[in-house]
Structure formats: structure tokens, C-alpha cells
Amino acid sequence: MSRNKSLLLAALWFAAFFLIPSTPDGLVAKELMIRITTYLLIGLVVYLAVALHLLRKTLKKLMTEMKEEQVLKAARLLRITFDVKRAFGAGTLRSVFEKVNKSRDISLDAKNQLYEAIRRKRVDIPPPAIGKRSCSQV
After folding, report:
1. Burial of 93 from C-beta contacts in 10 A (0-12 / 13-18 / 19+)
2. What is the rounded distance in angstroms from the CA atom of residue 91 to the CA atom of residue 46?
3. What is the pLDDT of residue 137?
4. End-to-end Cα separation, the chain, in angstroms
5. How far is it, in rounded angstroms, from Cα 104 to Cα 134?
6. pLDDT tens-digit profile of 85-133?
7. Is-contact 79 120, C-beta < 8 A?
8. What pLDDT is recorded for position 76?
9. CA distances for 62 relative to 5, 10, 42, angstroms
10. For residues 58 and 77, is the Cβ–Cβ distance under 8 A?
């Protein structure tokens, strides 16, 4: 679900909480909403911890062995996680992309997917290239 839809859903959830009357049935509904919200937040924290752990393992594996499957897996995990820039740092993401970008074994499509995933995290990186050769050597 996109960030805007999630924020809209949360706003509707809290608006419904304040619009429910304080009758005995309304208080039961409010109590259930508080309990559900608590478990949703706990689930969100667990999801973030697991996703960041998987992403960390994938990025370490990507740095040791440069394979296209690893690049695609890292791009997919970058798309579904959040708070990556704060957890890993922009420098780490840049260095991973630079190493992938210089590799000739990785296809341009996989580089583009990783580029788009990192750009969504608001990290400034150069566009993907075909290999180590620069434009002046071509």
C-alpha cells in the first residue's frame, strides 16, 4: 500500500475513533480500536526489523558476490522497506550502487531497477551505465 493511502487510512481510523459516541457500546468499540491499533503498531515494528535485517544480509551478500539475482533481490527489498536511508546511511547505498554500476556482469535492466529503488529513498546517485568504460572511452 502506498504511503498516501496508509496515511489516509490512519486518518480515517482516528477520525472514526473520535466520532464514535461515548455510550457503553461506543466505549467497547473504542477499546477494541485501541487494542487493534496496538497490535498493528507492534506488527509494523516487527516488519521493519525483519525487513531491514533481510536487506542488510542481501546487501552484504551483494558486496561479496556480484550476481544479477542478488541485485534484483536487493532492489525488491529496497522497494518494500522504509527508513533505509537512516538505517544504512546514504553513503552505504551509494557505494553498493557504484559497485553494481561498474560491474559488466549485471544487466542494464537490473541496474535500472536498483537505481529506481535507491532513488525512491531520496539518495542522489548517477544513472546506471553499461560497464566500467566512461563515455569518453567509447
Report:
1. buried
2. 26
3. 47
4. 43
5. 13
6. 888 888 889 999 999 988 888 999 999 999 999 998 888 888 887 655 5
7. yes
8. 93
9. 32, 36, 30
10. yes
